[in-house]
Design brief:
about 425 residues, alpha/beta, Alpha-Beta Plaits, Aminopeptidase, four-stranded antiparallel beta sheet, 12 helices, 12 strands, globular, binds zinc ion
């Protein structure tokens, strides 16, 4: 039975955007020494730099957005440290004009085909539409003995409710183990909430009656929270497309926002890949776990973490499947278990359209950053299989991934997730539970 929805859905992308990025370039910078990397990081506030990608290791490049006002001075400094510089994106505004859906046409139609609740999965929905979606799916009559339960994790800094859907198959084993998936911690990574919604649809309806999905649901209940940072997401949709943080009004510096993925209370340290400056995009917050959006996850996982085998937090971009630790280059003692399960995911992703995902630990493959949610889920809440996923792409569109690429991005990751869960379960419990 279809969910009846009689509301006009306002698309997140619209003509409301006020912040423009005319003449902003994204540069790819290869620094010569780690000390030069630190120098570039320290130029963030002076030149209003926006780090789109930080290096994975000392020999790796970084990608940085810079405005036309600061371009020349910034390039001079890069020349002084003899860095290699090339231009990835000539004009950020061109990508936005070309690929953002400008239409405010309401999404009312139901797809005639197969799955599901009648929602189009190839659009970026607003916060209120996502809430409507979660309410609708919880009210829907689902096939295959599936039930969807709406739960509330808490509220955001500006008071928006943060919701989660629990998907469970009746009639399968009692006291099943659980998997937690969240999205939208970083506001501008729009493909993350869209992918979590795709996952809800596929798990709830399993439109092709796929045996692997049935097996997964016989083994696990899955909890999915598509939008952890609704204030930032809303702001990214209405005013400032490239907003990353939440929307805390910081007392010092007249700057807004905390980087929620530097704020989690496990080995929290602004010096390691974060910042003490409220104006920085990487501001770690005044204290560990200071933000309500962080506390929503922390409180839930501290109370329930022992029921969960896996925690996956969905970000973009970069195509990576990363495991702890983020705060140190040391590896957890069970890292080979995490690595092997992630490899199953990576291989299933590649099987769809050949997309290559890198598997590794956050610090060894990315850069040290303390206060991430995956470190907390493993080290603080004791969830063994804890990961950060970076979805498509590898920088051609970056955060402005066209809406036409939502479904392929989400589908391949969902395939990877199903394969990952099978490897994880088999390793933990053997191949029973089918
Ligand atoms: Zn992110």
């Amino acid at each position: 039975m279809f969910v009846h929805i009689g509301i006009l859905f306002v698309l997140l992308q619209s003509s409301y955007c006020v912040e423009r990025y005319d003449g902003h370039k994204v540069l790819e910078i290869l620094h010569k020494a780690e000390s030069d990397f630190i120098k570039i990081l320290e130029m963030e506030l002076k030149y209003k730099l926006d780090f789109w990608k930080l290096p994975k290791h000392v020999d790796d490049s970084m990608k940085v957005r810079v405005s036309p006002e600061h371009l020349e001075d910034f390039l001079h400094e890069l020349e002084a440290i003899n860095a290699d510089v090339s231009t990835m994106i000539e004009n950020v505004q061109d990508i936005m004009d070309e690929h953002q859906v400008q239409s405010e046409v309401p999404v009312l139609h139901r797809r005639a085909s197969s799955y599901s609740s009648g929602w189009s999965l190839n659009v970026y929905y607003s916060y209120s539409s996502i809430l409507n979606y979660l309410t609708a799916i919880a009210a829907a009559t689902l096939p295959n003995n599936m039930t969807a339960t709406l739960e509330t994790l808490g509220t955001s800094y500006e008071g928006r409710v943060v919701r989660m859907i629990k998907l469970s198959k009746a009639g399968s084993a009692a006291n099943k183990r659980k998997i937690f998936i969240d999205g939208g911690i970083h506001a501008r990574e729009w493909v993350s909430p869209a992918t979590v919604i795709y996952m809800i649809e596929m798990l709830a309806y399993n439109p092709n009656n796929n045996a692997s999905i049935n097996t997964l649901l016989n083994r696990y209940d899955v909890y999915l929270a598509p939008l952890i940072n609704p204030d930032g997401y809303q702001y990214s949709g209405s005013s400032y497309r490239l907003w990353r943080k939440n929307r805390r009004n910081n007392p010092q510096g007249n700057c807004y926002g905390v980087d929620l993925n530097r704020n989690f209370p496990f080995q929290w340290d602004p010096i390691i890949g974060g910042s003490n400056s409220p104006c920085s995009d990487l501001f770690s917050g005044a204290t560990p776990g200071s933000e309500p959006e962080t506390a929503n996850i922390v409180n839930y996982l501290m109370a329930n973490g022992d029921l969960f085998d896996a925690y996956l937090t969905i970000h973009s971009y970069g195509q990576m499947w990363l495991y702890p630790w983020g705060y140190t280059s040391a590896l957890p003692s069970d890292h080979s278990d995490l690595h092997n399960a992630a490899l199953s995911g990576k291989n299933a992703i590649a099987a769809y359209q050949g997309m290559s995902y890198l598997v590794g630990s956050s610090t060894n493959e990315l850069y040290a950053a303390a206060g991430g949610s995956d470190d907390f889920a493993k080290g603080g809440a004791g969830i063994k299989y804890s990961y950060t996923i970076e979805l498509r792409d590898q920088g051609d569109y970056g955060f402005q991934l066209p809406a036409t690429l939502i479904i392929p991005t989400a589908k391949e990751f969902f395939d990877g997730f199903v394969a990952f869960a099978d490897t994880m379960y088999t390793h933990l419990y053997g191949s029973s539970g089918k």
